[in-house]
Protein 1
Amino acid sequence: MGEFVTLADGCRLHWRLDGPQGAPVLLLSNSLGTDMEMWAPQMPALTRHFQVLRYDSRGHGLSDAPAGPYSIDLLGRDAVGLLDVLGLEKVRFAGLSKGGM
């Protein structure tokens, strides 16, 4: 289980951080219709080199699903909002499908 952050618009995002303390942070964004667990098969390899921050995008997994519409701009602001709340200024980023947009 992970944690939750509340963004400026009140939407709660579900997130989890795994990997060695002090390692560079890699932020992973899930694809349409999935949640952060889509990255589970890659986690053993990724956590050898990174602290991996995964989150369920708005409307996915355990994150809130407020009324839409959702735009790529909004989803991008959600990722930045998560980083702001966690106090992370620099991360590497990877995503798949809408998560990569």
Protein 2
Amino acid sequence: MKIAVDSNDGINIASPFNLYQNFMVFEFNEKSESVNQVKSVIKYDHQKRLKLIKSISNTKNIIREIDDCRTIISHNLNRPMLNRFQKAGVEVYITFKNRIEDAVGQYLKDKMIHEFTEGD
């Protein structure tokens, strides 16, 4: 699964006050060594499962640059950019976490909870 994160350094999510959007695209290895996926998401080190693929800075056609990403993680997106991503079918995940590793972990945990309870 490919995830784009609003970041300038690959470690932290960019401040919501940044004027320019820079995205780093990571590939996340979903395979887990644990049989119980919920436990592995909570306890497993996500940094070992994230691989940086590319960095995108200040491009006019950012949708095309991250069109193979399933999710965007950010602190804040302006309304036009949010609408463009949603129209393109990209899931936007707004977080208050500062570190990419923590935000990805929270996203996966929320996603699993949502998928688990959706069947009820």
